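Q: I'm building a small set of examples for a reading group on sequence design. Run inverse folding on the following structure and report the sequence directly after it, with nothing in between.
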């Protein structure tokens, strides 16, 4: 008797074989046994291929990591430009690392790679990527970054993604893809790049939102997180409060406590260097450094000129010019309100020692800033009032 199916005809004997297979007899029983022995990744023991010889410990060749291990302060400069000469000047200025701004600037990875290739030190190359993503972070590491800063980390899952793409196995999931970092910049580091990478990389996660603060303690405990960065500007942006407000300060304290509780580093802007919990900091941009350097150079020249008896501008006059320049730089377009408020506080304090005409210049500059930034008017007026500088006519 023949039984038909949509592929043709089979004999009765084939039906019996099929029944036997379905009951687990013969070859099917062997297949079931093999299925029980299938490979399971979670049961795999990672090999010793990338371990150093017995008795050897990984050398810390990343200068930023060395500074953190020593207890800090680890200070990073901020890079927004793409000019290699500017980058190299910052790299040799004394910073422990340089933070290239890839979150908010229209910079390409090709441009960043060129900066790092031109001046891989003495400051360690670092970057703030746009988000915790395989492409973003592996572009950074493969191009040579030794410090990875990941912004707006809200959850443990986001934090784990940042760890995954920053670290090689068995800690993370970074792919071994080459690039100028491992093949050119760091190809001769002590112990070997692949063998010592996980001990040398620095990973900072930025806590910028209320959700991030809520999850900060769990995020900080994840293996591979070097430090939590309390984002001074965006914690104000997402909370509606500013530095000095009790609500804002409670958020900062929560992030710092989360880091300390986990035994990692608490990071923030350089103006928080006097806060005991913090050991790593973000300093100003190359533009701010050019401005400050020019002011210092001009001040020295003015002082020397004044001592010759030849007359010329007084030191206090130069001080007014420096104060006005700083106010314009920090408050002309307010990106980080706390930096503007700090500049305003410095200006009001300095104005107390100025002549009336110079005080009037500072007062007018503050009025102009308030007029252009009405949402910050109350805070700036309060700063001026507390410093004894009346802004009303």
């Amino acid at each position: 008797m023949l039984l038909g199916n949509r592929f043709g005809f089979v004999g009765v004997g084939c039906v019996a074989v099929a029944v036997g297979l379905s009951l687990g007899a013969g070859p099917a029983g062997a297949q079931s046994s093999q299925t029980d022995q299938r490979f399971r990744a979670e049961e795999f023991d990672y090999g010793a291929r990338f371990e150093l010889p017995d008795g050897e410990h990984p050398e810390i060749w990343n200068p930023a990591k060395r500074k953190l291990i020593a207890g800090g302060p680890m200070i990073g400069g901020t890079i927004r430009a793409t000019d290699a000469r500017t980058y190299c000047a910052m790299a040799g200025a004394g910073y422990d690392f340089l933070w290239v701004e890839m979150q908010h600037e229209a910079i390409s990875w090709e441009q960043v790679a060129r900066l790092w290739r031109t001046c891989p030190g003495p400051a360690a190359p670092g970057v703030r990527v746009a988000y915790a993503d395989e492409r973003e972070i592996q572009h950074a590491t493969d191009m040579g970054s030794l410090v990875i800063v990941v912004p707006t980390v809200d959850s443990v899952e986001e934090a784990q993604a940042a760890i995954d793409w920053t670290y090689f196995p068995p800690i993370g999931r970074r792919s071994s893809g080459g690039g100028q970092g491992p093949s050119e910049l760091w190809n001769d580091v002590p112990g070997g790049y692949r063998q010592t990478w996980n001990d040398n990389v620095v990973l900072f996660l930025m806590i910028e939102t209320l959700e991030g603060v809520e999850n900060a303690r769990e995020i900080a405990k994840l293996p591979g997180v070097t430090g939590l960065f309390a984002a001074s500007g965006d914690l104000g942006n997402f909370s509606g409060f500013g530095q000095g407000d009790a609500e804002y300060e409670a958020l900062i304290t929560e992030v710092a406590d989360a880091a300390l509780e986990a035994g990692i580093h608490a990071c923030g802007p350089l103006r928080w260097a006097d806060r005991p919990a913090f050991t790593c900091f973000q300093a100003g941009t190359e533009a701010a450094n050019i401005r400050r350097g020019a002011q210092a150079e001009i001040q020295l020249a003015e002082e020397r000129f004044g001592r010759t008896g030849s007359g010329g501008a007084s030191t206090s006059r130069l001080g007014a010019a420096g104060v006005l320049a700083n106010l314009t730089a920090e408050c002309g377009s307010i990106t980080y309100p706390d930096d503007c408020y700090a500049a305003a506080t410095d200006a009001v304090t300095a104005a107390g020692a100025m002549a009336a005409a110079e005080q009037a210049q500072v007062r007018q500059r503050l009025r102009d800033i308030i007029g252009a930034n009405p949402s910050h008017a109350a805070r700036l007026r309060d700063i001026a009032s507390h410093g004894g500088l009346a802004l009303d006519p």
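The chain has 18 helices and ten strands.
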